[in-house]
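Class, carefully examine what follows:
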Amino acid sequence: MEMVPIYEDGKITGVIASGKDVTEQKRIEHALQLERSRFKSILDSMEDGVFIINRQHEVEYINPSIEREFGPVKGRKCYEYFCDLPGVCSLCRSDQIFTGKTLRGEWYSHRSGKAYDLLETPILNENGVLSKLSILHDNGKRKLLVVKAGLPGKVFSLILCPLRSTCRPTERRRRKVSLRVLGEKERKNDGGTEK
């Protein structure tokens, strides 16, 4: 509320007051805060890992599942936190996400030793700036059996860091393992059929 005095002969003889009713604005702010808290509560309770990053690769949010798997962020960029890299991952898809695309894929983390289904989608922050929301679902429930020497059966090699992942090429080579999958044909490292 603003108040302006009215003077007559050097004395205050009155006041002009003007105000703005902010009841509706306060109600909207309160409703937004409740929705924000509800959204964070949902993300925090998810078993899947959820994280949000901005265009500068700064981690804005991780849910407890990610923190249990990868530890505290401690101000690191996403490429430092998830991949132990000094710079942006060569196969980073953030630019595509920030143009409005939603992408799905798989990602192998050499830090956790797990393969994940990955969903990446843009989200609009309250200030109108885009961030990237990513959801990691541990796909370790897939029935893959490591083949031991001498076991019969059809075998193929699986690069656990697929080409669309953020792992370094040297890491992909080190992570090659032989697996037995029921009903699969033998395959070469590049995914082609071996005759």
Observations:
- The longest helix spans residues 23-45.
- The domain at 47-138 is CATH 3.30.450.20 (Beta-Lactamase).
- The first strand starts at residue 2 and ends at 8.
